[in-house]
Amino acid sequence: MTVALMWEARATEGRGAELVAWAREQKLPEAPSRRETFQAPQDRVLVITWWEASYDASDLPELPDPPRDLVTRPVHRWRFEAVGEG
Fold first, then answer.
1. What does the pLDDT look like over 5-42, one tens digit per residue?
2. Strands, DSSP E only, in 1-86?
3. 2, 49, 78, 86 - which has most CB atoms within 10 Å?
């Protein structure tokens, strides 16, 4: 089964590029099958990692919280399982 972990944070005003760079620098203890980083208006940054694991796997590595002065609120995290194409 494929599980996607989503990590989303909002940078303090004007620091979106810095948050993107910080997120991209974060190394996980093991490599996911796929990892993508996105940015959006209001300095929001989204990182999605894909894993071959069960939905409730407790050992999947996640990105840490960024430094508090870099974000406006706590990180949001979601977990999804693939349900097929289309």
1. 999 999 999 999 999 999 999 999 999 999 999 999 99
2. 2-10, 34-40, 44-52, 76-81
3. 49
Q: Is 68 helix (H, G, I), strand (E, B) or coil?
A: helix
DSSP letter at 15 equals -
- Contacting residues for 54 by C-beta, under 8 A, at least 6 apart: 1, 3
Task: Supply 66's token pair.
Answer: 């960024």
Question: What separation in angstroms does the CA of 48 have from each of 13, 14, 65?
Answer: 23, 23, 15
- Which token pair is 77? 């995290």
Task: Give the C-alpha separation, 17 to 82, whole Å.
Answer: 30
Q: Which amino acid, 76?
A: H
Enter the tokens of residue 28: 């996980």
CA angle, 68 then 71 then 76, to 5°: 105
